[in-house]
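The authors assume throughout that readers already know how a fold can be written as discrete tokens. What matters is that the chain and its backbone geometry are given together, residue for residue. A single example would do more here than another paragraph of explanation. For illustration, here is how one protein appears when written out as sequence plus structure tokens.
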Amino acid sequence: MAYKRTQPNSDPLLLITIRRNDQRLQLERSLSRIWHQPKLLIEPGVREAFTLLVENHLSGNPVRPDIFILDLEDGACNTAVLLETARLAPGLRDAPFIALVDCESAAMRNRTYDAGADLVVPWPRLDARIGDIAGLVVGSWLNTESAEDASRQAR
């Protein structure tokens, strides 16, 4: 069964990279406040998420998440390279990127936005910003043309 981009009024497919179980549970609880049963694909890191996307793409069973949430908790990674590379992964070209960060510094937030994040959310503010995450998904649903629609228009 191929994963397809979901539609408004349904539960989204979320690709999440997160290493810390305590924060994984916090994120899952927060997301369940806005969607009844979101479909979660959870990987421990970006490399594993890319592997999942590429393997599924090559097998003819593409995964096209509605949103990509990545935990930038280590702070040592090169955020710009990470996000630029993620934008090239199959299935992520149209997905909004949410970066979860430990610190609330303006410099970190600005660097992450400059690198291509659609939304930067400090972990301590996750519950307060959950509506912003939902808004990005709905905006993506309304502004992204599905592959099926694009192929019909090309005929």
